[in-house]
Task: structure prediction
Amino acid sequence: MMDFTDDQLQRYSRHIILPEVGGKGQAKIAGAKVFIVGAGGLGCPVGYYLTAAGVGTIALVDNDSVEMSNLQRQIAHSVNTIGMPKVESAKRTFEALNPDVRVIAMQRRLSKDDILDLIRDYDVVVDGSDNFPTRYLVNDACVMAGKPLVSGAILRFEGQVTTIVPHDGPCYRCLFEEPPPAGLVPSCQEAGVLGVLPGVIGALQATEVLKLILGKGEVLKGELLIYNALKTEFRKVKVPRNPSCPLCGEHRTITELVDYNEGYCSMP
Amino acid sequence: MEEIAADKRINIKGFVCPYTFVKAKLAIESLEVGQVLEILLDSEEASRNIPKSMEDHGQKMLKNEKINDTDWILVVRKERE
Ligand SMILES: [Zn+2]
Result:
């Protein structure tokens, strides 16, 4: 069993006294490695709460730098870190919250050539990206590597969360085989997003991650949770596995990773 | 009174809620089902709360005794993980 320091005993006391967590569960959280794609609207709250929860290793991948327009929703950044790489800005915030956590900042874009190597050592992947090429790349890599993936998306007043457990539940391509053509999808700059929305969706994603680590409760496997902030309404939509899914179905036609052309909104 | 042989003893004098329960719960976790934990404490509040929380978590309280002006001894048997 993990030996907690007095500080850790205090910090994690409200976890340890939960029957579903306990000292053993907290030790699992401390041993877990989570890979977060995007240090924007979703990546900030996911990383922030997982840091507070004491996840041992958190990798953050994002190529962008902090801008004033991010601060309406990207809560790990501040006026003091404008111009700094987002991953570095978030790393500072998370380390100030909890020095137990090792934050690995990767300022880069993910590509089909490196994503499988990058996620290899991690237990869970979180998608907080804002564009379809990355969403499909991350989905495909997780299915190929057999990594559970907690996927989130936000637009205007509506957000979605689902948890992909490869070859057990459906994947993103079971829903939508191919990304929509560029131009059909509104860019988030044009569409806008309520600043608190990624906080709700990111907190749900962080909850899914903790349940996967603990092996407790039920995750959103085969279900898409849709949150409408204007109506204050949650809906769950069942999503079956698609036997003809090109990635995880019976006759797989996608056996290599694809980098789709950019042309989508790339502002997280 | 029948004496119960403890498999583990902890002294949590000086601790207050909720750390009294956190310490007791970690000690229970380290035991096997069927083993017995003896807890020495000096918080009146904890002497009431720990037995209740232990039973909420499915453990069995065997003893809750005030042994002098300041201290209590609780004895708990682990019934479940
Ligand atoms: Zn699929």
Remarks:
- The mean pLDDT of chain A is 94.
